[in-house]
Amino acid sequence: MIAYERFEAWRLAHRLALDVFSATDSWPRSELFVLTSQARRAALSVPTNLAEGAAKRGRREFARFLDISLGSLAELSYLLRFSRDRNLLSEPQWEALESTRDQTGKLVFGLYRRMRKPTSETTDRANQQTSSAATLTPAP
Q1: Is residue 127 part of a domain?
Q2: Cys-Cys with 94: which of 35, 44, 84, 123 at CB 3.0–4.6 Å?
Q3: What is the domain range of residue 39?
Q4: Where does the chain show beta strands of DSSP type E?
Q5: What is the mean pLDDT of residues 44-48?
Q6: What one-character-per-residue DSSP string does 69-107 give?
Q7: Range 22-42 average pLDDT
Q8: Is residue 36 part of a domain?
Q9: Does residue 93 form part of some domain?
């Protein structure tokens, strides 16, 4: 199993990207280089950034890629809404895609919060440095 495949957030984001590509297959050719392309790029950006971030060394770096994924999910939310309002997506299609997007967002955000939370090792090290600094401070 590749590192990113172990994350439920990636699996759902992959499903979302596949669903967006399927939904946009039937959109008018006149939208190919505008809305179709933009929606597909936003959808594909989510699992792509999860995969790239999972390959990085360290939680902070991974969190940065998760943050980019969250931005792409927000962009996709608007593009799906706009597509529905332009009658490119039916209400049931929009609801299904939006539901998957929302679930994906919750998983990605949960993963982001976990990566941003200091590890106990980091917290312990910071506490040790603070107490060491306090004992080394010369008395007046």
Answers
A1: no
A2: 84
A3: 3-117
A4: none
A5: 98
A6: HHHHHHHHHHHHHHHHHTTSS-HHHHHHHHHHHHHHHHH
A7: 95
A8: yes
A9: yes
Tokens of 56: 């990085």
Query: What span, in angstroms and rounded, lies between the C-alpha atoms of 15 and 71?
Result: 18
CA–CA gap between residue 76 and residue 81 (Å, rounded) = 8
Helix/strand/coil percent split, the chain, to 5: 85, 0, 15
Q: How many domains would you assign to the chain?
A: 1
Minimal CA–CA distance to 44: which of 63, 61, 24, 64? 24
CATH number at residue 81: 1.20.1440.60
Q: Two tokens at 65?
A: 């890629």
Q: Return phi, psi of residue 128, to 5°.
A: -65, -40
Residue 40 domain-assigned (yes or no): yes
For 87-133, write each residue's pLDDT tens digit. 999 999 999 999 999 999 999 999 999 999 887 655 454 445 434 44
